[in-house]
Amino acid sequence: MKKEDLKAAFEMITGTGFTKASGFEVREFEEGAVTLVLTPREDLTQFMGYVHAGVVTGLADHAAGAAYASVLPEGRVCLTIELKINFLKPATGDKLAAEAKVISGGGTIGVVHSNVYGEKDGVRTLCATAIVTLRAISAG
Fold first, then answer.
1. Sheet arrangement for strand 76-87
2. CATH class for domain 3-138?
């Protein structure tokens, strides 16, 4: 699948279910590297007003899946089989951005590093870092 087609397919997937309800958007999409963004809203926060850890995890995970999918052969998709995330600072800002890069893009198992940043007034703060392991499966 061409890069443009893969990006369009991923944008369509991001426009469904949890990712749509949360407001995830594609900022950058390259082979092996994807950046997703989210505009924080009150309904995505926890009791102290920070973006909920589950939403931050979902953003990191979805970016990782897109990054790994971008290096898979046509007809293959991926599912997360393990995720380790460390929360470093409260998730705040005008935007949250998850930057995912493939560490190992094997044909069956991929490993992706995904960092989540809070962005406000041109300043980026690392909020969370994740290592995501994914399994490639047939799309059909």
1. 25-30, 33-38, 95-105, 109-120, 123-138, 76-87
2. alpha beta
Predicted model pTM: 0.94
Distances (CA, A) of 8 to 14, 51, 112: 10, 27, 21
What are the structural domain ranges in the chain? Answer: 3-138
Which residues lie below 8 Å from residue 12, measured CB to CB, with a gap of 6+?
A: none
Distance CA 110, CA 97 (A): 21
Provide the percentage of residues in the chain whose pLDDT is more than 90: 80
Name every residue whose Cβ is closer than 8 Å to that of residue 110 and which is 6 or more positions away in sequence.
68, 71, 72, 78, 102, 104, 133, 134, 136
Task: Tell me the mean pLDDT in the region 78-93.
Answer: 97
Assess contact for 113 and 131: CB atoms under 8 A.
Answer: yes
Give tens-digit pLDDT for 8-17: 777 777 788 8
Backbone angles phi, psi at 88, to 5 degrees: -105, -35
